[in-house]
Specification:
There is one protein chain. This protein has one domain: 60s Ribosomal Protein L30, Chain: A. Helices cover 9% and strands 60% of the residues. Strands 1, 2, 3, 4, 5, 6, 7, 8 and 9 form a nine-stranded mixed sheet that branches. Strand 2 and strand 3 form a beta hairpin. The radius of gyration is 15 Å and the shape is globular. The N and C termini lie close together (7 Å). Bound molecules: zinc ion (ZN). Zinc ion binds next to strand 5.
Length: 141
């Protein structure tokens, strides 16, 4: 199921050193009034807290990687949950030997430096609600 939307604006900037990655992106969306969009970023984090969704138990398992890491790529989107903008982002990270880690970005990931591009979209609202099949808050299309 798809909905047609059109690209409206591109916002490009950097995020605050030492701040929480997910919180900073969410605050940026609120400040710029972005309710629907796409996110891409690169940079580095001081530590990461990620999650993996277990499809059998239908629960997220959270884990922390407590070391400085490069952000190889962050991809995400912005849509609405309970009427408020919600950022959903996944991230690939690398350590000093080039080993990669990844997952669903959770609160507790601390920015070292982050260059971000957010593309905002115009069109019908994308609202998340509980999905029976997956147990996740997915888009109601
Ligand atoms: Zn996710």
């Amino acid at each position: 199921m798809m909905k047609k939307i059109s690209s409206q604006q591109v916002h490009m900037g950097k995020l605050q050193h030492g701040a929480d990655l997910l919180e900073e992106i969410t605050q940026t969306c609120n400040r710029e009034n972005i309710r629907l969009g796409r996110i891409q970023a690169i940079g580095a984090v001081q530590r990461a807290r990620l999650a993996y969704y277990n499809q059998k138990t239908r629960e997220y398992r959270f884990f922390t990687i407590d070391q400085p890491l490069e952000i190889l790529n962050l991809s995400g989107n912005i849509s609405l949950k309970d009427g408020e903008p919600m950022v959903h982002a996944h991230i690939s990270l690398a350590d000093d030997a080039g080993n990669a880690y990844g997952g669903h970005v959770a609160p507790g990931t601390v920015i070292f430096a982050c260059e971000i591009v957010i593309e905002s979209f115009e069109g019908p609202a994308f609202e998340r609600s509980f999905d029976e099949e997956t147990g996740l808050p997915l888009w109601r299309l």
